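ok trying again, last paste got cut off:
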Amino acid sequence: MQAIFITMLLCLLVLLPSKAIADKNSILIAHQNNSNINQELINQLKGNSKLASYNVQHQDISNDNLNTTTLNRYQLIIAIGSKTSKSLLDAKISAPVLSLLMPRHLNESFKKLYKDKKNWSSLIIDHPIDRHFHLISSIMGKHKKVAVLLGPYTKDQKKTLKNAARKTQQRLVTEIVDDPAKTSSSLKKLNNTADVLLTLPDPVIYNKKTIRGILLTSYRKKLPITGFSKAYVKAGAIAAVYSRPEQISQQAAVISDNFLISNNFEQRVYFPDDFSVALNRKLARSLGINMKSDSAIIKKIKKAERKK
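nice, full thing came through this time. structure:
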């Protein structure tokens, strides 16, 4: 009788869905093609106090050796980057996934492509549009004409841009760029009327082939640029908001902890909460712009965000 009971129990365990036999308090950090920022983010997550009580492991899944049975044993998988996220979503695993360092435009595409994946959320790399306008206000003041080039991946944000400009008392002027070859001519149209060019991450407009020309054209016309990354400021923008790996890891740890407590993501998409600013003071001064300290600018942006 006992042998029959054990046999039935084993059969039941085999038939149970992988979610039911997930290892308690287990988190996998999945990554591919390790970069410096990936490694720093992994280290920050592994050392985060919010995740100290969990069994946190990491695995490079670059070789496509995805063992779905093993992956499904984790209570949560944190995917570093869009390529890693796509590999996991393609594998149709049942384990919940939290994606990090995901661009907004790719996240929107993935939501349509993997609409059946309910237990998946993303902490995207893009910052809220309002935050970019608050950055401009904190550096240049209000009532400025803010120019934006919109491509295939950003033209859906036109309404959001209008609302942000209205709330921050700025004026918005936009140009649609459907063809990369027309980027230069579209930029020249804006150069004659704009006070500042706000760049958004659209790979059709801003890529390795176009970036140098855009920066040089804007500099010659004395048009300041606010970028969307620290690297962009190094290349020639006057300012940008961005999140450091420790800031991303802190928010990801909070999201992960809340998920493992409630077994539910509060949001399908999270924008970065905390941020830093990158400033090119020398370039700004050459354009007649005097900047306050980093901390003063961040404080002013956060104060404006609390008022909304």
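cool. Residues 245-262 form the longest helix (18 residues). The chain is about 45% helix and 20% strand.
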